[in-house]
Design goal:
With 79 residues, the protein is mostly helical. The chain has 1 helix and no strands.
Length: 79
């Protein structure tokens, strides 16, 4: 193999490596976008879960208060 053939083969390999790196870079950018979207959705979900937990705690207090009131009205508990 003479020098020209070697240079041509080296150029082909360089082009193939460049293409691979460009493909990997675009895949990385897409992955980062998807990860950012997942993080945003996760943050919103955490907020929704906190709101739901607060609502459930309020409902629990209301139910317990009503239960105590019913017990008092029925004479099952001292006032």
């Amino acid at each position: 193999m003479n020098i020209d053939e070697r240079l041509e083969k080296l150029a082909e390999r360089t082009d193939a490596l460049t293409h691979s790196v460009e493909l990997l870079a675009s895949m990385q950018i897409e992955t980062e976008k998807r990860m950012a979207d997942l993080i945003e959705r996760s943050t919103k979900l955490q907020g929704n879960m906190a709101t739901l937990a607060d609502g459930m705690a309020q409902l629990t207090r209301i139910v317990l208060d009503h239960d105590d009131r019913l017990d008092r009205l029925e004479g099952n508990q001292p006032q």
